[in-house]
Amino acid sequence: MARVPELNVSVQVSPLDPKLPQLVRLCDPGYVAAMLAAASAGAPGTAYRVHTIRYRPGERHVLRYESAQAAPRRALFAKLSKRDADVSRAFRVATHVADCLDASGGTARALRPLACVEGDSVLVFPEVRGRPLSEALRTGAGGVTGHLEAAARALRALHSTPVRLGETLAHRDFVTDVEAVRRASEHISALRPRTGARIDETLERARALYDGLPSESPTFTHGDFKAEHVWASSGHVMLLDFGTCASGDPALDVGKFLADLHWWSWGSGQRSTRLRTAFLAAYGCSADGGRGRLLRAAVYEALFLAMFAAHRLPIHRPGWAERTAALVRRAAKGLDELS
């Protein structure tokens, strides 16, 4: 890694990452073949091509392993974590989710990990064929409502299952998410003070409203339930990415998905309303948590709309300021409707 102090810039060349030292060997096709064979995730003697899918320096890395053999085989994906991460816990959680959905009797499944290689802090997953629900929402493809309903029923099944993982699940609360939005939006406050002030006001209103709503016992939660993590595949939907599962308020998952629906169907008018109604009807907010869960989900929805304004809108894109302000106004409007 090189530093350019006068520009306050660091230059890091992949796969050399001080916090992910295993990345070097996990990009070596020879090492990969031996590792996968030892973990019973790949056939002995198979050669692999290695491709980078997603990389956040010092945080996480996703690699794609494609067979270099003439006979086509499904690719494998390696999800790396930092050395201090508990990958065995992540393996247990992902397996638990897959078991729960298999037992639910619905059409949704969870992506089951093939192997956990603790020495390399990596989980190995099979390839999923299909496309993410986010793409179908963005393009207005047909059949989306059925996939939304299946995803909603799968989420209900996860929220209804007993939490049997004990101490392996962290607890997540509303205040933690409020502070995460506050930190994420600091650049907005610096660049657009009026919009930043409105975010601060929205966060304070959200906290006050949430505290005044009926609560319920924590359940198993996905933690990052969004359309990108729901894939339409071979006549069913597949849920992905269980790295943020926690014990918490089930309204978090419902609210984040509603905010994500707004994001992907922004400007679609009645279609957006129909999709939202279909999701909530299939989830069944009238059961279990009842109206209280639905109201708390609306507060979470506002919270995540503010988060999307901070995380999903690149500053360099034309119209950044206007779109950011529009998302923040939509978040505030959602809270107005609860007041």
TrEMBL record:
Annotated SUPFAM superfamilies: Protein kinase-like (PK-like)
Ranges of residues in domain Aminoglycoside phosphotransferase: 75-293
Keyword set, alphabetical order: Transferase
Keyword Transferase found: yes
Domain of life: Bacteria
Classification via Pfam families: APH (PF01636)
The UniProt record lists the keyword Transferase: yes
UniProt GO molecular function: transferase activity
Protein name, UniProt field: Aminoglycoside phosphotransferase family protein
UniProt organism field: Eiseniibacteriota bacterium
